[in-house]
């Protein structure tokens, strides 16, 4: 549904909605109704990824430590404290009052089991790639204590404990010796502030406040999460009072509906950034234009990032010139910045021997308007752009086969304000996202994860980001802005890391 059609239909829908639904209907029922476009099929975050699953996991699960989004400090949660015995041995003490949703008490054995299961080769957990890099094993050292044995020095242990591993009861995934990786997929037994009441995969999830939760209790009694993939359907439900919260809202819809009495438009920061990855290594063509540094620099100069951020994303979106989010630790913004300058871009192409341009296959899977704007800017400097707008699965397959010369991508770093959350994924040699082919850069990026002194880590990332900018391996574009539509009765706090925390919502 286009913007003008939405505006044309709004008065009729608005009148009907105002007449039919009392504004405080959900508040009276103490039920927060949430819309998610992404299909929810598995409630176990140890076996999922994506932002939607993180949002749900924060409500149904807890971790050893928690992240303060305002200070980026890691605080005790299920853990009460920690102590490094040496650089590769970490003792963690535990609370004795943490309850699972079935009423049983969490034990040190449960914690050890969870982590040891994740790093087992046959677990096939989505979290194993994160924890398996640094964890050898965990042993129980007392009724409320465990000891982590690390493979190597790793300064981000608390981060991974706080954000990736959800605690499970001992034997959850291999009861009776039979492996069942889907054990918690639909009937989740967690330790979080909300427990699962019912779940219809791909349709609806009902959560209820868990009275035995050890931490601060949520203000709202019940949360109903509905899968509504069509943004038009979400809009209609918001206007009729059927839902109280929706996110990833297109800017035009957020502004137009937010201007009515039926919804409030909230816009806040997001750690997601947009960028173009260029095949500097020559995987698609070993002598191709993109292997030339001047060509990659020309592409950077060709992009009107400021206008893309302002008019296509809006809110708090800003242009960037680094291969990270400026709010992340270690993100050096003093690196080379390629200003928007089509004339300089054309001159660089000419110097590189491509004064008449060349064909460029540009892949994209999201934000079609942005992808088209990128294609238009590159066409303006003489490139013959073939925009391949596909589903993410198709892009992933082509990238894994090294068949992509350039692609428009985004990365949210899992809400982690640390350059490590983006650098390894995109610039190590064991990822198909790295099209630079720069082994020295990969070694430098990984060395930051083996450095425990924060100042030294920052210096390593500064050096690596400087090289990425000088060589124009990427064309960084902009940060994203998180647009929400919420019920006027709902108080939904926005955190600086852009991660929605529905458990902190309350009624006004």
Automatic annotation (TrEMBL):
Residues 1-25 form the signal peptide. GO terms for biological process: peptide transport. It comes from Actibacterium lipolyticum. PANTHER family: D,D-DIPEPTIDE-BINDING PERIPLASMIC PROTEIN DDPA-RELATED, PERIPLASMIC BINDING COMPONENT OF ABC TRANSPORTER. Belongs to the bacterial solute-binding protein 5 family. The keyword Signal applies. GO terms for molecular function: peptide transmembrane transporter activity. The keyword Transmembrane does not apply. Its main location: periplasm. GO terms for cellular component: ATP-binding cassette (ABC) transporter complex; outer membrane-bounded periplasmic space. This is Nickel-binding periplasmic protein. The lineage of its organism: Bacteria, Pseudomonadati, Pseudomonadota, Alphaproteobacteria, Rhodobacterales. It comes from the Bacteria.
